[in-house]
Predict the structure of D,D-dipeptide ABC transporter permease.
Amino acid sequence: MLRILRKLAEDRAALVGLILILALIAAAILAPLLSTHPGDVTEFHTARRLSPPGPENWLGTDRMGSDIYSRLLFGARITLTIAVTAIAVAVLIGVPMGLIAGYYEGFGSNLLMRVSDIFLAVPQIVLAIAIAQTLGPSIENVILALSATYWPFWARLVYAETRSIKNEPFVEAAIALGCSPFRVMVLHILPSISSSIIVRTTIGMGGTILTAATLGFLGLGPPPPTPEWGRTIAESREFLPMAWWYAAFPGLAIFLVVMGFNLLGDGLRDVLDPRLRRAARHGK
């Protein structure tokens, strides 16, 4: 763990990504303490409606007169909850399915992969929109829509990685010693491919946040007056360019968070993937 942290510290881009992600987590956890107006993020204040950034409202106010800075902080909770839950469900479905399909051969394995191929054949955002539209706008339905469309990515990744190492000597030795298939998959194969899963999960967090914001922008996310970032940008369209801050700061928050996960994912890939490290040494 210390070696990984030292390697990340040497990668400036990955370090920036880690700082951005830690800032998101801190904003989500400490929102009531960091907020300048914690009690009115969902209330109307017509006297200060669409006020520009200033000493009282650092990032301005929205059409309800709510403080945008405070809404961004509480919106970070929603964003992080959606992303973490959706990715966790996708991993819990995709990883076991990929392991089983990759380890075994035959009709069952092919059937599992054909199911994932069906999901992958439809553009992920289109399928997420269709599911969210059918179920209705809510945080739970957004999580369900994202989980249902993301699990095939992990299933395909784990399937390919499992197939590539199932005939390695250490796996054959475990089988020769009498280890059960479950023990071989969980204690021998899964740790060997965990680096790929970690990298894919980190980068997938950024994609999940962006997709969740897209659903919110289309009106398929949490209903108003929930301080969700994508919905905030959608509400700001009719006030552009008069109230530029209304869309600019939520958009900047989404950009920084997605960039943070992508930068950290690239850094983890370079640190954890031994094949990339060998390629880099040979390149030198």
In short: The radius of gyration is 22 Å.
